[in-house]
Here is the input.
Amino acid sequence: MTGWQKKSIDELENSAEQFGLAPDLEARFGRKALGMAGGGFSYQQMAPGLRSAFGHRHGKQDEIYVVLSGGGRARLDDDEVALETHDVLYVQPETWRAFEAGDDGLELFVCGFGEGGDAEMDAEFWPADQSSNA
Here is the structure.
């Protein structure tokens, strides 16, 4: 085995399909597909107006979200932050986060640093007075 691997994002399984979230959401994760021992990454594309079905946080994994195209907003604990193309958002492990795509959709590349597989999810993360599109 060589000390490197190359894959196309298109070769990674679209995890959104197995949870009934496609075609409005595309979510491809690279940690297991590349056999990474630590860290990880994902590619996510959200249809216009789509809101994450849940918020999540981690025990030990920092994350960086890079907006490749489109825009929208992130809900971070009780704060909301606008996102535009080429923005980079750093989120500490314990911070709850969820995303909503704007009118042009939201395309993200996400890098996780540290131990993974420790996500805690909350399907009620968005305030009740805001209807969910997911």
